[in-house]
Amino acid sequence: MEDSTSPKQEKENQEELGEARRSWEGKTAASPQYSEPESSEPLEAKQGPETGRQSRSSRPWSPQSRARTPLGGPAGPETSSPAPLSPREPSSTPSPPAPARQDLAAPPQSHRTTSVIPEAGTPHPDPLEQSSDKRESIPLHTSQSERNTFQQSQQSKPHLCGPRDVSYNNAKQKELRFDVFQEADSNSDCDLQLPAPGGSEGAPSMLETTIQNAKAYLLKTSSKSGFNLYDHLSNMLTKILNERPENAVDIFENISQDVKMAHFSKKFDALHNENEMLPTYEIAEKQKALFLQGHLEGVDQELEDEIAENALPNVMESAFYFEQAGVGLGTDETYRIFLALKQLTDTHPIQRCRFWGKILGLEMNYIVAEVEFREGEDEEEVEEEDVAEERDNGESEADEDEEDELPKSFYKAPQAIPKEESGTGANKYVYFVCNEPGRPWVKLPPVIPAQIVIARKIKKFFTGRLDAPIISYPPFPGNESNYLRAQIARISAGTHVSPLGFYQFGEEEGEEEEEVEGGQNSFEENPDFEGIQVIDLVESLSNWVHHVQHILSQVGALQFSIYQGRCNWFNSTQKNEEEEEEGEEEDEEKEEPDYIEQEVGPPLLTPISEDLEIQNIPPWTTRLSSNLIPQYAIAVLQSNLWPGAYAFSNGKKFENFYIGWGHKYSPDNYTPPVPPPVYQEYPSGPEITEMDDPSVEEEQAFRAAQEAVLLAAENEESEEDEDEEDDYD
Amino acid sequence: MDADSLLLSLELASGSGQGLSPDRRASLLTSLMLVKRDYRYDRVLFWGRILGLVADYYIAQGLSEDQLAPRKTLYSLNCTEWSLLPPATEEMVAQSSVVKGRFMGDPSYEYEHTELQKVNEGEKVFEEEIVVSEEESRRRLFHKISMKSFCSGLPYIEIVTKFHLCKNGRKGAGGFWANHPFPACHLFLGLSLSEAKKLSSYFHFREPVELKNKTLLEKADLDPSLDFMDSLEHDIPKGSWSIQMERGNALVVLRSLLWPGLTFYHAPRTKHYGYIYVGTGEKNMDLPFML
Fold first, then answer.
1. How far apart are the CA of B36 and the nearest CA of chain A, in angstroms?
2. Nearest to A333 among B15, B279, B280 (CB)
3. What is the pLDDT along chain B (291 residues), one digit of tens a residue?
4. Hey, which of A464, A606, A646, B109 would disulfide with A602, CB 3.0 to 4.6 Å?
5. Ramachandran sector of residue B281 (left: φ over 0; alpha: ψ -120 to 50; beta: rest)
6. How close B215 gets to chain A, by Cα (Å)?
């Protein structure tokens, strides 16, 4: 396309210029050296068949207007005072075009080559033409200096006449343009080629510099497209003048677009790739794997999976309901999470899976999945457990390796309360997190009670890196993954609720059998659940029950640091485990001075109407998702204790969801825990205090007494000796 | 977020989890249009939602020509009927600062706050009861958030660097910008990716406060046509913003940690940016402990 148009353009340009030249000649007929009749004839002949409809009609004005300026500008003086120029070098009159042309053509060309596209098809007249167009807009303040420059160039570069062998026509054109362009030439372009003469001879005015700056700016090549505005404008004007559209100003934008489109530019080959957007591609690549997943599996396998297990939750359905409630992630993100959960269930032996929620972090967020393994849980856990125990043992042993004589430290570290078995209590579920759907899932370690206890005392933002250390005042035993796990356990225990009757206790372990050793507080779905009216769910909080065990707070408060942090009671004083039926509620601290008594929280499946208030603030808020269409609305439950925890129920179905920073709400500000009490020193008693030194009198009295005793003893001894002798004899 | 492009904005800001239910969205789209007509605002912004205990407040703002001028604020409980909030006075600010806790969701609810006022009248101590009504305190709170933590994603910077308006702007840096409503907002083409990751590319949308307190040395590097607002990076304490790239790098999300719930989003290289507040309306005073 470029090839087909450009010659034509060139031709037309030539025509116009020829025309311009002729009209100009007509006006400046006084100067004989410019009149070359034979040159116009081929132009005329060419013009005949080609001059199109548009150019014919509107031609007259443009060449004239173009020609007029040369007359007013530098041409004027030339015609009026041709004496110095024309007679001196009559033979050189055709020659100036060549240097001028080179001067003109060279800078744009060098621009092209340096910038991006050395386009062979770019019509040469372009720079010329554009400068002529530009010239019209440039005020002619500097004509004097221009003329100087012109003469200078003319005189200094006669040897450059050689290259003008292109064609006679071209030479003619340039001869014409020579005058037209010299001004623009000396304005800006020439300063690349003729710096010294132009600059020294005519003192550059402020305006000139401004114009140069402006032109330099226009010539700046865009790093994106490889164009510069200067070329673009000239191309556009060429196009407009060639095509002569009806209302050029109205379709100016389109013309601009067309010109840009016509410039088919190859992408510039660089040695290094642009890598700015690389992370975008990276995550897209990872997420593509999520979408491809389905195709990789065989059809049979899918069917099998569907029949065998129903591990995958219907995320989209609950997301729809949560959207009615005004919470939840965007649709596409939810779907990606859905796919990520599918990936999780495909790669792990998972019996049940649930989208727990999203915890926001400073650098990255956590997407949390709650899963239950089928039968064989991971072996990693056992190892971890051993390691933890070993570490504890090591610590205690280290204490014992001390010298015998000196008293050992009586202080024993508060008894570490063992964590609950996986599958029970707070470790009932296993949690997987990932930063973004598509990134690998990371399994969180099981929570140990100490972590929960400390986590209650601190309030930290999550960073988004699981291995980030938690720096807090009560030293947190673990890194961010443990803290995250502890917060998940706390949030789950506080905010996972279900409509009354949805779950019932398992038959093998009744709700009242508290003494069963290792008995799970298990529950199962009620097959006879008939659903609850949505309006009832909204109006009464007692229709919602907790189905996650309450995490006990601090018990055995006799000593400062005995803590519980479990769901099931661990009797730390008697060193044997005793399971206790616990319920759940928000974990308000209940300090019970009587450490022998077990702390009993509310039992499982307790209505949330019995939850404790937070300083006159109700712990839950219920509402109907839509007041406009109440018959199809759902009940939305919102926790005020854990902002971001929501639950919905449409009567039959329910779901819990958490999104937020993972912090508990308190109307008061966070207060760092008080420092532990200072241990009292040993009371000053008889074993601490000492007697005064014995005085002389005492010693003398003592000696006297001793001597008396000795005497008596000797006597006795002699008697005894005698006795003994008697005995031994 | 602009009421005109509410749906797209909600989609972009959805990463924080707090959105609008479909019926709220629909009614907002309808009613904000009417608000714009009735109050003759230039633009109407959907500011956000304050979670109350009983009901939520939906807050919208009306903008006039001068964008830095105090904005008119409206609230609604049902997203359909909007009421104008009176502007907050300094006195109300002081009063509401003693009210803690959540909003009720009932505009006529009155907080009671007892305060001991020592009046030296014959060595007696009078106990004076001050009643602060919720409406006032809410208004105030809103005002505080808006002044404190609104960031607007620098159409300015971009305009100035890309379109060389700085030459015009420099002549009357203060006046030029202050009197001009988003001088060339339509020319804002978005931040480049590297810029979008930096906190210094975002500004508080308010008259500068900290800028005036800077030393001369710091001011030396400032470009008056660009740096006429407080940058987020100078917020105290440091790290009161979390900046994240989401969806690959297609979306940058700023979350205020001082006012949890305020989410600012910007899709780099597009002109989509905005913010929404969904939260309890309480300031996170525990921030230094949490970082």
1. 24
2. B15
3. 777 778 887 777 777 777 788 888 888 888 888 888 888 888 888 888 888 888 888 888 887 766 556 677 888 888 888 888 777 666 666 666 666 777 777 777 776 665 555 555 544 444 445 555 555 555 555 555 544 444 443 333 333 322 222 222 322 233 333 334 344 444 556 667 777 777 777 776 655 666 566 666 666 655 554 555 556 666 667 778 888 887 767 788 888 888 888 888 888 777 777 778 888 877 777 888 887
4. A606
5. left
6. 31
How far apart are the C-alpha atoms of B190 and B155, rounded to whole Å? 8
ipTM of this complex prediction, to 2 decimal places = 0.79
Three-state SS string across A490-546, please? HHHHHHCEEECCCEEECCCCCCCCCCCCCCCCCEEECCCCCCCCHHHHHHCHHHEEE
pLDDT at position A313: 84
Q: List, as one string, the DSSP characters of A585-612.
A: --------S-SSSPP--PPTT-BGGGSP
B290, A460: Cβ pair inside 8 Å?
A: yes
Cβ A280 vs Cβ A241: under 8 Å = no
Direct distance between the N- and C-terminal alpha carbons of chain A, in angstroms, rounded to an integer: 144
Q: Are B53 and A621 in contact (CB under 8 A)?
A: yes
Q: List the structure tokens of B246.
A: 């989401």
Q: Which residue has the higher pLDDT, A29 or A678?
A: A678
Residue A607 has φ and ψ, to the nearest 5°, of -60, 145
Q: Which helix (H) or strand (E) holds A636?
A: strand A635-639
pTM over 0.80: no
Strand partners, A647: A637, A656
Distance linking the first and last C-alpha atoms of chain B: 28
Report the alpha-carbon distance of residue A23 to residue A60 in Å, rounded. Answer: 9
Closest-CA residue of A relative to B288 is A460
pLDDT at position A436, please?
85
Instruction: Confirm or reject contact between A155 and chain B (CB < 8 A).
Output: no
Give the chain A residue whose CA is nearest to the CA of B9: A330
Residue type, B8: L
Look at residues B200, B197, B273, B275 and name the one whose alpha carbon lies nearest to residue B230.
B200
Question: Which of B17, B78, B249 has its CB closest to that of A329?
Answer: B17
Question: 3-state secondary structure string, A605-627?
Answer: CCEHHHCCCECCECCEEEEECCC
Euclidean distance between CA atoms A514 and A432, whole angstroms: 31
Residue A323 contacts B, CB cutoff 8 Å: yes
Say if the Cβ atoms of B289 and A323 lie within 8 Å.
Answer: no
B64: which 2 tokens?
């006039």
Q: How far apart are CA A336 and CA A435, in angstroms?
A: 12
Residue with tokens 């039959």: A652
Beta strand A635-639 with A620-624 is antiparallel
In order of B155, B190, B225, B226, B277, the CA distances from B161 in angstroms are 10, 12, 10, 9, 30
CA distance A706 to A695: 16
Q: Please give the pLDDT value at position B251.
A: 81
CB contact under 8 A, A280 and B102: no
Query: What are A350's strand-pairing partners?
Result: A373
| Interacting residues of A181 by C-beta distance below 8 A, sequence separation 6+ | A100, A104, A128, A131, A132, A135
**Beta carbons of B55 and A359 less than 8 angstroms apart:** no
Residue B48 is predicted with a pLDDT of 84
Beta-sheet pairing, A654-660 with B43-50: unpaired
Q: Is A60 exposed, middle or buried (0-12, 13-18, 19+ CB in 10 A)?
A: exposed
- Please state, in angstroms and as integers, the Cα–Cα distance from residue A306 to each residue in A60, A300, A338, A346, following that order: 81, 10, 16, 11
Q: Which residues pair with A646 in a beta bridge?
A: A638, A657
Nearest to B249 among A280, A670, A672 (CB): A280
Q: Which pLDDT value is given to residue B233?
A: 63
